[in-house]
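Could you join me in thinking about how sequence relates to backbone shape in a protein? To get us started, please write out a protein record for me. Would you write everything just below, so we can both look at the same thing?
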Amino acid sequence: MDWTQLPLGPLQTNCYILSNDEKECIIFDPGAEGESLVAWLKQNGLKPLAVLLTHAHFDHIGAVEQVRQEFHIPVYLHKEEEEWMENPALNGSARFELGEVKARAADHLLTNEAALTIGSFSFRLFHTPGHSPGSISYFFEEGNVVFAGDTLFMGSIGRTDLRGGNHEQLLKSIHNHLLSLPEEVIVLPGHGPATTIGDEMDSNPFLNGF
């Protein structure tokens, strides 16, 4: 298994491609630059199986339609944000001067913390609200990585001033779910460089007291 980080769009939102030896892959948060992303996937001979969204803010869903239509694959999202894909006021794009973003509703709505298996890829799901009400972190144990979206960053945490954000809830999500993972687990955030659970426990100023 291998993962690749592809920062996309004006906010440089991290799209991640998780692939196996058979060239099958999962796409996390295709946020923008759909044509370039599709071209990259084809150039690398990859066969996408699904799109997994950590949440439905506009900068994480901007290329969903191009990827979904090109490869005919399903999109997964937490039920708490069921209406966000189609609504610029909910997904935040109406607030910023970057153009409204819309996509068709997700094909599969996730409602609980459980296991999710797609092809040969198996994930543990953590509902980690706070940055947004439907934020999900996907723990891929085989690869020792967690796709954390905008919940936890290197040296920082997600903003909580957008619709449905809650600072206290975000800290609880990080503490109860992410910090319970082994310290060597790699955290793949929605923006910026990768980090580890151990490094954030040791040095993240927003997590003092945990």
Remarks:
- The chain has a mean pLDDT of 95.
- The chain has one domain: 2-207.
- The chain has six helices and 14 strands.
